[in-house]
Structures are given as structure tokens and as C-alpha cells.
Write a structure and sequence with these properties.
Low-confidence stretches: none
Strand content: 15-25%
Bound molecules: adenosine-5'-diphosphate
Shape: globular
Mean pLDDT: 96
Number of helices: 20
């Protein structure tokens, strides 16, 4: 199959969250299965030309929207690790040469709808110029949602004998970001006014780019089976539960994999020492390194304090309202705590004050730091992820692999990837973490206390927990095969029925 993977971020070129990790790894896994996979993303000013040495492959793709006519340039680079796949970078300095991807100081760029409209339309027209027409375009989140909408709603594209045949698969990585904009933008985005109706793009008087993408794509996937069910409910559907329930036959949940080359404690260049499941000892060095970095007291042979860790966007979704309520009690257990994150200012303030009040117990970095994220996974004993909702979640998967035992809430991909520690699962050596269900501070605190107590008083079971986690296989191959099956099904359906 020929597959175009459209994403607004792709690791390591540009990343703000888990979507980038998926966009860097899934195309590679599909390439490995023998498909011709290429990716397309904006050429952000933050992407290093020196490092990725892109070549100009099309001097201009003209995109004519009512908002204005622009010429984007198409560059090509290749993904850094084997097997490589081509990445097209769409360049337009006025749109994409900015310090950040979507927002600065918590404020969204005001022209985001237009920035991604140009990106989507250029991503489609570019294909004609490249003489490479994919069988399937995999779209990811709201930034790419205009691609399926244009392919259906733009008359020239729909009637084009090549573009008209492209199938679209829409992947939902987080339903709570929908691309909501004032309705007058419908005109400027080049979508006919007729599409502004409750069955397509209208949403409580505003235009909803994601909704348009979900309506106009042939098939839908999201990043875990549990989240696929949750988003059909009032609690997690973010207003789109009705639409998703209607389309449930077309919706599949596929758990994300992880890049096992990048996230591998046996060969991670960021770590103070390499370790494996069979030889966990050097992990102690990684812990010491982390404690030293943050000026925390080191473990001694007689006293080992559990080191609790968090790496996260500091957003409500991730459960920080619960965590901030119980931090005093958590610290009273004597555990150490290291947090790496950036996001909502109120959480920055909270953790800054906490770190200032407890310099011997709390380490803090408010920012985005990839190397440190690896060091925290390796140095930590317990990883906290008390999310309110979690489409898939990657950090708990990295934590398993690094022997950093997760404490998670039972939701979305967390529910699908962690086996809760009960007397039976612990005894059988199956447990991989600690799980709580109710979204309440007391429930989180109980789970944290249980984890701390197991670490301190029950080393045999602790080692089993680490062992079982480090043994899990979350490589991309299995997930990529599920994507492959869906896409092949779409093409077979077109061949036999000529439609959905
Ligand atoms: P989400 O996509 O909702 O933010 P995920 O757990 O799916 O959450 O993915 C988050 C990704 O971003 C992980 O690779 C994680 O290591 C990384 N990450 C999040 N915050 C930071 C940070 N402050 N510094 C470095 N990496 C981070």
C-alpha cells in the first residue's frame, strides 16, 4: 500500500506530546511491513536544517483559499532511524516559522485555523506535483482534519480521478482538542457554507474542524480499546459522543506502541548506566544520578527512599487537581518526588512553592527536556499518572520498560496497559503497577501509599513488579499490523463496492 501519514508534529523533528512519538514510529513500523509510507508535516522554524538536511523537491505548491493565495515550498528529508521513510516538510515562513508549534505562553496563535488549512490543502495538492498518489491518508487530530473534509467537499478534488480515489483513516489521539473557531471562518477556509450544518462541521454555533474530519473519513481509529468505548459516552465524548456512537462500526481502538530503540534502558545514551531486566543493578546508578541532579539525599545501603516521578503536560486532564491535593500526605511518607513538566500556570506556581518548601524531598524542572525525561524514567522507582482521561498514554509504557512502576487511574490506555497489583496478580508475577478507579484524591493517595509500602516492606514482590513490567512487549509491530488490516479492508471495500 501507498500510505501518506499527515501529522502536525513528528519526533524527533518537532514534538509537544505523544502524537509526535506515534508519528515518528508508526510510519516506520508500516515501512517495515513492506509499505510505501511517507509523512507530511509543516516546516516549523524550530526544525534544524543542519541536522535534517532537507532537499527542495517542489519550489511551489499554490494554495488558493478565500483567505488568500499562498505558495508553499515542499522539502524532503528522511526519518533518522532505520528503516527510514521520507518526510515532506511544507514551508511557508509566515505560517510556520515561529518559536512554538501552536501557542506561546499558553495563548494559541490566533491564525491556527488558517495555518493548518493551508497545510492540509498543500498536503493534498503536493501529491499531484510529486506524481505519488497514496491509497490511504492517515490523518491525526484536528490539525489534519481538513484533509478528509477537502477531499469530499472540494469539488475539484472530489472529481479528480486520482485524488477522488484516496481513502482516509482518521486517528484520534485526544478528543478534547477539536479545533473550534468562529463560524465566519468557514468561508476563509475554503469549505462551502453548506458544510456548516450539525451533521458536518457546525458545533454549538462554531466551526469544529475535528468533527468535519470524523464525518468525512472512511474509517476511524483511536489509540486504545477502552478510549474507543469511553468517547461514545457523555463523560468523555466532549460533545461528539453521538457522532462517534453512530460511527461505532467504523471505529477501532488500537493501543499505541513505543519506539523500542529510543526507549531502551540497555542502550540509552542519556543514562548514567545501562541496565536490563536480567541485570537491574545499574539502575541504582541512574537513581543516584537523578538525586544528585536535584540535590536530593542519596540512598544508603540502610535507607532507600522510594523516588516518585512525574513527566507530563501540566494540564487538568493529567490529574493534577488530585495530585496537588495529596502532595503533603505523599511527602509525609518520606518518599522523594521529581517532576518534569510544563503547562497550566497555576500548577507551575504550586510545584514551585512545594519545591521551595521541601528542597530535600522535591526536585522540579518546569520545561520540556527530552534527555531529562529519559533520566527520570531510569532513575525513578514509582511513576505517577493519575489522569482523568488518557487516550493511550505513553509514559506509563516507557515507565514499564524502565522498571519505574506506574501508579495509574483506570481509564483509557492506562486501563489497557497496566495490570493492577492484587495479592493474586502479585503472587502470580503478573502485576505491573497500581491502579485506582474513582477520580478522588483519597483513591490516588491509597494507591500511592500501597506502592510506597510495597517498595519499602516487600522487596520480593517489588522485584516481581519491575520484572513483569520490563518484560511487556509494547513494540509497534503488533499495532502496525492492526492499522494495516483496517487500511487493507478499506481498499478491499472500495474494490468490491466502490465506496465506504
Ligand atoms: P500526551 O500526548 O497527552 O501529552 P503521552 O503520555 O501520550 O501524553 O505522551 C507524552 C510524551 O511527551 C511522552 O513522550 C513524554 O515523555 C513527553 N513529555 C511530556 N512532557 C514532557 C516534558 N516536560 N519534557 C520532556 N518530555 C515530555
Amino acid at each position: 500500500m501507498k500510505i501518506l501519514f499527515a501529522a502536525s508534529e513528528l519526533a524527533p523533528l518537532a514534538k509537544t506530546g505523544g502524537l509526535a512519538d506515534v508519528a515518528g514510529a508508526l510510519p516506520r513500523a508500516l515501512t517495515e511491513l513492506g509499505h510505501d509510507v511517507r509523512a507530511v508535516m509543516p516546516f516549523y522554524g524550530t526544525i534544524s536544517r543542519e541536522k535534517y538536511a532537507p532537499k527542495l523537491v517542489m519550489p511551489e505548491v499554490l494554495v488558493s483559499l478565500p483567505a488568500g493565495r499562498r505558495a508553499l515550498r515542499v522539502w524532503e528529508t528522511t526519518s533518522p532511524s532505520e528503516p527510514v521513510f521520507p518526510i515532506y516538510l511544507l514551508e511557508d515562513a509566515a505560517l510556520f516559522d515561529r518559536p512554538q508549534l501552536y501557542a506561546e505562553a499558553g495563548v494559541e496563535y490566533p491564525d491556527n485555523a488558517l495555518r493548518f488549512a493551508y497545510y492540509c490543502m498543500a498536503a493534498i495538492w503536493m501529491l499531484k506535483g510529486l506524481h505519488w498518489i497514496p491509497d490511504v491518508i492517515v490523518c491525526n487530530d484536528w490539525q489534519t482534519a481538513l484533509i478528509p473534509t477537502y477531499l469530499v467537499r472540494n469539488r475539484t478534488m472530489r472529481l479528480d480521478p486520482q485524488l477522488g480515489k484516496i481513502r482516509t483513516l482518521f486517528a484520534i489521539h485526544n478528543l478534547s482538542y477539536q479545533g473550534l473557531y468562529p463560524n465566519y471562518l468557514v468561508y476563509q477556509l475554503g469549505v462551502p457554507w453548506a458544510a456548516f450544518n450539525p451533521y458536518e462541521m457546525e458545533f454549538w454555533g462554531r466551526i469544529n474542524l475535528l468533527k468535519g474530519g470524523l464525518v468525512h473519513s472512511h474509517k476511524l481509529v483511536t489509540v486504545s480499546p477502552t478510549y474507543a468505548r469511553e468517547i461514545q459516552t457523555d463523560e468523555f465524548g466532549c460533545g461528539l459522543e453521538g457522532l462517534l456512537h453512530t460511527r461505532r462500526q467504523d471505529l477501532t481502538g488500537i493501543l499505541n506502541g513505543i519506539d523500542t530503540q529510543v526507549w531502551n534502558p540497555a542502550q540509552d545514551p542519556n543514562l548514567a548506566a545501562a541496565y536490563t531486566r536480567q541485570n537491574k543493578r545499574p539502575k541504582e546508578k541512574c537513581k543516584r544520578d537523578l538525586q544528585e541532579q536535584f540535590g536530593l539525599p542519596l540512598d544508603t545501603p540502610r535507607k532507600q527512599r522510594p523516588l516518585l516521578t512525574v513527566i507530563s503536560r501540566l494540564a487538568n486532564q493529567k490529574g493534577f487537581d488530585l495530585l496537588t491535593e495529596i502532595m503533603p500526605q505523599v511527602l509525609r511518607t518520606g518518599a522523594q518526588f521529581v517532576l518534569l513538566g510544563t503547562g497550566q500556570p497555576e500548577y507551575h506556581d504550586y510545584f514551585r512553592e512545594l519545591a521551595a518548601a521541601h528542597p530535600q524531598q522535591v526536585g522540579l524542572e518546569l520545561g520540556f527536556n527530552d534527555a531529562l525525561a529519559h533520566q527520570i524514567e531510569a532513575g525513578g522507582d514509582i511513576f505517577l499518572m493519575p489522569s482523568h482521561f488518557e487516550p493511550c498514554g505513553l509514559n506509563q509504557l516507557y515507565s514499564l520498560r524502565y522498571g519505574n512502576v506506574p501508579v495509574v487511574r483506570k481509564t483509557g490506555g492506562l486501563a489497557d496497559s497496566i495490570i493492577n497489583a492484587t495479592p493474586a496478580t502479585l503472587k502470580a508475577g503478573k502485576a505491573t503497577g497500581f491502579m485506582f478507579t474513582e477520580y478522588k484524591p483519597a483513591a490516588l493517595l491509597a494507591a500511592v501509599r500501597k506502592a510506597v509500602a510495597t517498595y519499602e516492606n516487600d522487596r520480593t514482590h517489588w522485584r516481581k513488579l519491575m520484572d513483569a513490567g520490563m518484560q511487556q512487549d509494547f513494540s509497534w509491530e503488533r499495532s502496525a499490523r492492526e492499522y494495516e488490516t483496517i487500511m487493507q479492508g478499506m481498499l478491499d471495500a472500495m474494490a468490491t463496492r466502490g465506496g465506504r
